[in-house]
Design brief:
This protein has helices at about 5-25, 40-70, 75-85, 110-130, 130-145, 150-155, 170-175, 190-195, 210-215, 240-260, 260-265, 265-280, 310-315, 350-360, 375-385, 405-415, 420-425, 430-435, 440-460, 460-475, 480-485, 490-500, and strands at about 90-95, 160, 165, 180, 185-190, 200, 205-210, 225, 230-235, 300-305, 330, 335-340, 390, 395-400. By secondary structure, the protein is α+β, with helices and mostly antiparallel strands. It folds into three domains: about 5-165, no CATH class; about 190-250 and about 300-360, Glutaredoxin (3-Layer(aba) Sandwich); about 365-500.
Length: about 500
């Protein structure tokens, strides 16, 4: 069957699925989806072919168009367009930043508008085929082509304010008269100049920078920095708290984009698309009766404490963790708070690692004992994966072969022949794994396995991996069978993992 021949049937199915989802409010996040039938698998394959064909055609047209743009074109717009043409890396995810408003040169608008419409229809088809992760990414690609494409903006949770599409919390800050200072974060617009001059506003009066530091010297009275998703308390400095909060927001955006199917079921995604289209269809000048629900995890602030010094961190947390001196940061599910310290000892990877635990734990209902009985490696492996988050041109990257943990995984398996079979590793709970004398090796193996599960076969296991994580974090009494979630037996995954690591070439020392 040719690609595209299923399109009419898909359109009808899409409308039916949306109607049923809206009618019954289906919520299946904690249920493992049955593997697709042969017919469904064929439909998915045909859809993937359509997506790949559309991508190749667009890249060819955009390349030719960009080459013809005059040298006087807006440099930022040209750079953003060229970023869309960066070569794909099968071992690394590239997550492009989505502009808040249109940036396209006039000569690109016709091509990009057509691209946005085509991708949106493909996204609708993907949602009907239950391809949540791929559909979510397509919706982001829609907005790269046309930042003002309203249905995609609504599905992703943006709202329009002042001609730009923003996170609702950002729009609320702007409506309240605040604007972002590059160093000090959100401030009333009238305060920027005085902050630049060294003054600080505290308890309804202006004080000096030194007085402000003294007033916030202990963590109980620390600065409070609030962003879209985080509330950071620190007694180091306002500037350091803002830097931490911004880094965490970058992580949040990347994590949500990669693991959206941890948050949304296929039915919930269909509901969002149907709601977005009703909102868009509302005649101009009328107020839509349709409301878009916030994404799971939105509306609450994730709590983070950043101590000024390592000894303050140790003293405050030792009662809860006697071996706190061995850590560079920690997340406690019991207090729903991540704790770090500033200074040269602060490890950026640890911040991302512990904050990833917090994201999985708090953005949906989860057990505080997740991984206590089994599958603890998976929770650690995915947190290790997000340690690789790095800035790139007009976006961020995740994964790849450069991380120290993946390099260690390759050396230990391919050089040292050290590998714990996945069936044995998955049987280990938190305490058993943490007490294992080979703990560092198990962490690198977990990181390598997670890289493999996210990237192998063009990302075919990414959505099953999210399903596995949902169930491990739910911590059901009967336990979680990873082979059922991933759809492959352990022995097959062991062999495929070995073959995957060989794709990176021989590790050092071999």
């Amino acid at each position: 069957m040719k690609p595209g021949s299923h399109s009419i049937v898909r359109q009808l199915n899409f409308q039916l699925h949306c109607a049923l989802a809206l009618l019954f409010g289906i919520h299946l996040n904690n249920v493992l989806a049955a593997p697709p039938t042969a017919t469904q698998a064929a439909d998915i394959k045909a859809w993937q072919t359509e997506v790949a064909t559309a991508e190749a055609t667009y890249r060819g047209k955009l390349t030719a168009l960009v080459e013809k743009l005059p040298a006087t074109s807006n440099p930022a717009a040209l750079a953003a367009l060229r970023a869309q043409l960066r070569p794909a890396d099968v071992h690394k995810l590239w997550l492009s930043k989505i502009p808040s408003s249109s940036y396209l040169p006039p000569k690109c608008q016709t091509l990009c508008a057509a691209r946005a419409k085509e991708l949106y229809q493909l996204a609708r088809q993907g949602a009907e085929l239950r391809q949540v992760t791929a559909t979510w990414e397509l919706l982001h690609q829609v907005l790269l082509a046309d930042p003002d494409f309203a249905p995609a903006r609504d599905v992703l949770g943006y709202e329009q304010h002042g001609g730009a599409w923003l996170h609702p919390a950002t729009a609320a800050k702007l409506r309240a008269g605040q604007t972002v200072h590059q160093i000090f974060g959100w401030l009333p617009a009238a305060h920027h100049a005085r902050y630049d001059d060294g003054s600080r506003y505290f308890r309804n009066r202006w004080i000096t920078d030194e007085e402000d530091a003294a007033a916030h010297a202990d963590i109980q009275h620390g600065w409070k920095i609030e962003t879209e998703h985080y509330a950071v308390v620190t007694n180091h400095s306002l500037e350091e708290g803002v830097r931490m909060a911004r880094r965490l927001e970058e992580l949040y955006a990347a994590w949500q984009r990669v693991f959206i199917s941890y948050l949304l079921s296929p039915e919930e995604l269909l509901v969002r698309i149907a709601a977005a289209e009703k909102i868009t269809a509302t005649p101009k000048g009328e107020k839509s009766t349709q409301k878009m629900r916030p994404l799971p995890g939105e509306g609450k602030k994730l709590q983070v404490v950043l101590f000024a010094k390592r000894d303050q961190y140790n003293a405050a947390l030792k009662p809860a963790q006697p071996r706190i001196e061995m850590t560079l940061g920690i997340y406690f599910a019991s207090t729903k708070t991540a704790y770090f310290f500033a200074g040269t000892e602060q490890d950026p990877g640890t911040v991302l690692h512990e904050a990833t635990h917090q994201l999985f734990q708090e953005t949906r209902k989860a057990s505080n004992d997740a991984g206590s009985r089994a599958n603890f490696w998976l929770l650690e492996g995915v947190a290790c994966y997000f340690e690789t988050l790095a800035a790139a041109d007009h976006g961020y990257t995740l994964g790849g072969g450069e991380s120290q943990r993946l390099l260690a995984a390759r050396v230990r398996l391919l050089n040292d022949d050290f590998y714990i079979p996945l069936a044995e590793l998955s049987a280990k709970g938190m305490l058993e794994l943490q007490r294992d004398p080979n703990l560092p090796k198990l962490y690198s193996q977990s990181a390598g396995l997670t890289q493999f599960l996210i990237h192998t076969d063009g990302g075919a296991l990414r959505e099953p991996l999210a399903a596995a994580l949902r169930n491990v974090y739910a911590n059901p009494p009967a336990g979680v069978d990873l082979t059922a979630a991933l759809g492959r037996p352990f022995a097959q995954l062991d062999q495929e993992y070995r073959e995957y690591l060989k794709l990176f070439g021989d590790p050092p020392g071999r």
